[in-house]
Design goal:
alpha/beta; 7-stranded mixed beta sheet; globular
C-alpha cells in the first residue's frame, strides 16, 4: 500500500506509523481508562470530482479523544451507491493497515469500529444491510446513522 498521510486536529501532516505512535501516547496518558478506536469515511461530489475523507478516532470513553484524517480526490462518482461503497472500502482498507501496525506495536487490545454514512432516513436506507454486511464480513463492528459519528460528524467536518 502507498504511504498514507494524515492530518491532525492541528492540521499537522503525519504518516500512518506516526498516527499509531500518537494513539499509543494518548493511551499511555491514562492506561487504566477504556478506549475505542473508530474509522469512518464521508464524501462529497463536486462538478468534476469526488472528495473522500477518512477519519481515525481514538476515544477515551467518557473522557475525550483524538482524531486524524486524510482526504483524497477521485473521478466523479455517478451514483450515490458507488460513492457509499468507495467510502466503505476506504475505511476497511485503512482498518486493515492500521490493525497490522497496531499488532506490530502490541496495541491491539481494543475493538475497532467502522462507521458508515448510511441510515434509516434518506437515500441511503436501501444500502444499510449491504454495507453493514460487508463490514461485518470483514470482521469489524459496524455503526450506522445516527451512531456513526466518525463518518457523519468527524469526516464530514473535514470535507
Amino acid at each position: 500500500m502507498e504511504k498514507l498521510f494524515f492530518k491532525t486536529a492541528e492540521n499537522k501532516k503525519i504518516e500512518l506509523p506516526k498516527v499509531v505512535k500518537e494513539i499509543f501516547s494518548f493511551i499511555q496518558e491514562k492506561p487504566q481508562a477504556s478506549y475505542k478506536l473508530v474509522i469512518g469515511s464521508d464524501s462529497l461530489n463536486a462538478a468534476d470530482h469526488s472528495d473522500f475523507v477518512t477519519a481515525i478516532i481514538i476515544l477515551r470513553v467518557g473522557n475525550g479523544g483524538r482524531y486524524f484524517w486524510r482526504r483524497i480526490t477521485e473521478k466523479n462518482f455517478k451514483t450515490l451507491r458507488e460513492r457509499i461503497y468507495k467510502e466503505v472500502y476506504l475505511s476497511l482498507e485503512l482498518a486493515q493497515e492500521l490493525l497490522k501496525l497496531l499488532v506490530k506495536n502490541q496495541l491491539a487490545n481494543f475493538d475497532l469500529e467502522i462507521h458508515v454514512d448510511v441510515g434509516q432516513n434518506g437515500e441511503t436506507r436501501n444500502l444499510i444491510n449491504e454495507v453493514a454486511g460487508l463490514v461485518r464480513g470483514c470482521g469489524f463492528a459496524v455503526k450506522t446513522k445516527p451512531e456513526s459519528f466518525a463518518a457523519s460528524n468527524v469526516a464530514d467536518r473535514c470535507l
